[in-house]
Amino acid sequence: MRWWDSKGPAVLAWLSVLVAGIAALPGTGGPGAPDPNEHTTKYFFEPGGDDLTGHYDIRYFKNVVSYEERGITLYHMIRAYLDTFRENGLETWIAHGTLLGWWWNGKILPWDWDLDTQVSGATLDHLGKHYNMTTHDYVSEDETVKRTYLLDVNPFIWQRVRGDGNNIIDARWIDTSNGLFIDITGVSEIEPDINPGILVCKNRHRYHTTTLYPMRESIFEGVVAKIPYSYHNILKEEYSAKAFILTDYEGHRWNRDANEWQQLDVEVFNSTHAQKAG
User: Fold this and answer.
1) Long-range CB contact pairs, 188-197, < 8 A, 24+
2) Residue 93 parent element (H or E)
């Protein structure tokens, strides 16, 4: 028996509580919020559908955070996530824009709104069975930052194809202080008879097992991180070769001497985004 078969009633009750809680939240009328008159299969909800409001979990969203606070949140969030997974023997690796940030300097791209990681189908199933809705407390090394993270696994993880597109994110690691999150997606061999060794996520990214494995071990934001074996090919296919040479992007410029991306004008960024949020 699959784990979700035995927990069907619990999952339905859990969804009912979630929907009721969302409906009671203030300020949830944005384009990404659920319409109480419309049936949807979507599990994770955001307060809006644009860059400003589309990267927060609606349950913990209070307001759009500043550029500085977002950077601090993402920094501690990925460190907590990677350390927690490693300490519990859970295989995970960084992906998409987060992987590109690692390629440049082992850090988060400062214009990123959220972070991306991947897990195998087997690890995803294990997360659903043993770690769903668990909370994880974090204290920074200098003890100045304390956060609590929720690991929330989408009950639609059994569906390994895209379906209606509402549940391409399989799980999230959510900062409960402001709602920012890490998107976690699983990769699975969904057609072993006709496409053996091809692993696919629900957002149509495809990888051969030899592209991902054996995993490399590196450092990302000061902690141990797993990196796909053919990371260069993965990034080139997803973002094109320009991703390795563009040094001006999203209001940032690459400083070769400092080995980091630097924002051109922080005050303008915060002012512009505050106006959009208002």
Assistant:
1) 188/120, 188/121, 188/124, 188/160, 189/121, 190/160, 190/161
2) strand 93-94
Amino acid code (one letter) for 64: V
Strand order, beta sheet including 248-249: 248-249, 252-255, 260-263
Write down the residue that tokens 């009912």 correspond to.
16
Q: Using one digit for the tens of pLDDT, what is the confidence trace for 102-132?
A: 999 999 999 999 999 999 999 999 999 999 9
End-to-end CA distance of the chain: 50
The 8-class DSSP code of residue 179 comes to -
Cα separation, 225 vs 86, whole angstroms:
9
- Residue carrying the six token digits 């494995």: 213
CA 225 to chain centre: 15
The set of residues, in sequence order, having a beta carbon less than 8 Å from that of 109 and lying 6+ positions away, is 97, 98, 100, 101, 261
Give the three-class secondary structure for 43. Answer: coil
Q: How confident is the model over 5-53, as pLDDT tens digits?
A: 444 433 433 443 344 344 434 334 444 455 545 678 999 999 999 988 9
pTM: 0.84
Number of alpha carbons in the 13 Å side-chain half-sphere of residue 191: 9
